[in-house]
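Entry for the shared binder. Reason: the reviewer on the internal report wants the predicted structure included alongside the sequence.
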Amino acid sequence: MTSRQLLCVSANRRFRTEELGEGVGDFDVCVKAGWMEAAQWLRHNSPLVGLLVLDEYIGDFDEAERFLHEHGRVKWTALVDEPALQSQRCRQLVHEYCFDYHSRPVDPLRLRHALGHAYGLACLHQLPSSGFSTSSMRLTGSSRPITQLRRQIRKVAAADAPVLIWGESGTGKELVAQAVHEHSLRAGGPFVPINCGAMPANLIQSELFGYERGAFTGAMRSKPGLIESASGGSLFLDEIGDLPLEQQSNLLRFLQEKTIYRLGGTRSIPVDVRVIAASHVKLHEAVQRGTFREDLYYRLNVLGLEVPPLRERSDDVVPLAEHFFHHYAAERAGRVKGFSARALAALRAHHWPGNVRELLNRVRRAAVMAEGHLILAQDLGLDNEPAPALQECLDGARVRAERSAIEARLRAGKSMTAIARELGVSRMTLYRLLAKHSIELPSRKRAAQDEA
């Protein structure tokens, strides 16, 4: 567990904690001799700060570097002998992996201040950046679209009706579903996610609804399904649009009756569960194509949420990149401290067709592969992005095109539904574009909207 622990690691077995004196303050000190012994202890403990004793007995620098790289989440302070500082490898370890260093002999007051400062910063890094909640904080950002989405999540979570989440691939639909669950009255119950597109068609029935003993060859005992296992909580059906039509019918029956039948069973089993579904496919279009049941669509689409693509929340790109950089600190090379200015500019300029998932993957890879102290644009694979001036021109052209397209259709007297359909966006996105471009609705449309 995480507590006010201080792990002291020394390659010198003759090191004695008495040397630290009052410098460790009220920390609970645990001394480990050698990197292997310290690594074993860290498998079961999570101290926020550590003290490295570096002297002429340090031994294998490669082993020391591997240890520090694997345990980069700990804020290390080095206690260093003056002769050891003459070693290039020792100075490199201190520079790349340590928050601070203290030379021997120990000055108790200064050491206590250094360890206290390291502990305070480590505690700050563990705090969420707002009061929203642990899981919904993963919806990182302060842009208008994500702020609006947080407000909608709070409202939707207060009800107990089915929720339908739409968003492009990689936008974070499961995080939104988790936030809805954790802000609802069902937060104490299970959250059971199911990827409808990943289950083999011949197993969907038994996986969702369970089966009785003898229902098929190999069914040696009864097994509850995933829907049953979510009783008292929330069932998240990801990529619901990929569910075969036959199973859509069974799911509709469950939503209507709140009961299920296990495969091979004759007894109805009541299940108290809230259904949250998500899709990157626009289900109303799938209904028109005949690949999704219309009655199921309306059963699911009681409370709708739309997750904005990353290109519509460009102000969040850099905060998200920094969030991922720190979240995967244990994976990255210890020497990597952050992003270069050109890398940040490339992040802002990129269009992000893969959305947040693409950003996460690029940052995670760059943090491992970067060879310098800063992540460069080429580490992110974004060194061919257009120059900022050209990007500004493209952004300006995009803004003018959006505004012109909307205003032309408004002048033609078309309804909001017709405009959204022609532009290939949802009504929610259309209203967001109206606000973005400060476009006022004609008075008759505003009156009709108010009546609706």
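Summary line for the report: The chain has 18 helices and 16 strands.
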